[in-house]
């Protein structure tokens, strides 16, 4: 019985690693689209085309993201803001955005 529990935990850990790997691919696609937007002005269209493609839908699904139109719109909005993923995920950027939102609300 102990072996069953250990193999189940191992499989769950492998699944989590795979999801993280595919999430990294999504972040890279976002960064590529942001770079395209700065260079050519077509980043939101590029990320939408990728997210709607067979490969894009597969990667999003494997990352644990439902590849629906609401997600595509969110990806397009993210790219249009032009903030690279590493910056957006940093604590400093989150704190800056929260401060800006509080200032707007006041």
Give an overview of the whole structure.
- The protein has 106 residues and is mostly helical.
- The protein is built from six helices and no strands.
- The protein has helices at residues 2-40, 43-52, 54-62, 69-81, 85-88, 91-105.
- It is globular and about 50 Å long.
- Keywords: Elongation factor, Protein biosynthesis.
- It holds the Pfam family DUF6280.
Element layout with pairings:
Layout lengths: L1 H39 L2 H10 L1 H9 L6 H13 L3 H4 L2 H15 L1
Helix pairs in contact: 1-2, 1-3, 1-4, 2-3, 2-4
Pfam families: DUF6280 (PF19796)
Organism: Antarctobacter heliothermus
Protein name: Elongation factor P
Tell me the number of helical segments per DSSP (H or I, 4 or more residues long): 6
- H-E order: HHHHHH
Alpha-carbon Rg, integer:
17 Å
Outline: globular
Average pLDDT for all residues: 91
- Return residue spans where pLDDT drops below 50 for at least 5 consecutive residues: none
Number of domains as seen in the coordinates:
1
Tell me the β content. under 5%
Organism: Antarctobacter heliothermus
GO molecular function: translation elongation factor activity
Keywords: Elongation factor, Protein biosynthesis
Pfam family, one: DUF6280
């Amino acid at each position: 019985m102990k072996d069953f529990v250990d193999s189940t935990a191992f499989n769950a850990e492998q699944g989590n690693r795979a999801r993280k790997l595919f999430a990294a691919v999504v972040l890279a696609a976002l960064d590529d689209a942001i770079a395209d937007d700065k260079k050519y002005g077509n980043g939101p269209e590029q990320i939408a085309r990728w997210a709607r493609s067979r490969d894009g839908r597969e990667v999003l699904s494997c990352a644990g993201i439902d590849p629906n139109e609401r997600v595509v719109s969110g990806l397009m909005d993210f790219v249009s803001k032009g903030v690279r993923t590493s910056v957006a995920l940093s604590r400093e950027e989150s704190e800056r955005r929260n401060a800006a939102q509080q200032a707007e609300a006041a």
